[in-house]
Amino acid sequence: QVELVESGGGSVEAGGSLSLSCAASGDISRYHCMVWFRQSSGREREAVAATQTGSGKTWYSAYVKGRFTSSLDNAKNQLYLQMNDLKPEDTALYYCAATRVCAVGRVDLDFITRGLGTQVTVAS
């Protein structure tokens, strides 16, 4: 089982930027999709970006489209999430996961594997 470890979280003011990384211990190209999820207390889990590993095609949830950019480096087995123009409602635990289906939004996706996450806090 490939292990995923996220990094790059922290605290920023509204309007700021953060760059998250997801390092995999093995070959992530074996998975159909790599997804960035976020979860905060009182809210449903949300898939904010999903990248198909074979094509590199990425989908974004409506809440982050235009502000977040996900990228995949298959050679390094790394997934990235560049987050710009952050808003207080972006505050959440962000984690990456491998899934069999690419989908975004408040969807019920089964994980093949997932990381523990990195906390992002955006102050108003």
Walk me through what this model shows:
With 124 residues, the protein is mainly beta. Helix content is 0%, strand content 50%. It is built from no helices and eleven strands. It has strands at residues 4-7, 10-13, 18-24, 33-39, 46-52, 58-60, 68-73, 78-83, 92-99, 111-114, 118-123. It is globular and about 40 Å long. The mean pLDDT is 96.
What topology does this entry show?
Elements lengths: L3 E4 L2 E4 L4 E7 L8 E7 L6 E7 L5 E3 L7 E6 L4 E6 L8 E8 L11 E4 L3 E6 L1
Parallel strand pairs: 2-11
Antiparallel strand pairs: 1-3, 3-8, 4-5, 4-9, 5-6, 7-8, 9-10, 9-11
Q: What can be said about this structure in brief?
A:
The protein has strands at residues 4-7, 10-13, 18-24, 33-39, 46-52, 58-60, 68-73, 78-83, 92-99, 111-114, 118-123. It has no helices and eleven strands.
Features:
seven-stranded mixed sheet; 124 residues; mainly beta; globular; four-stranded antiparallel sheet
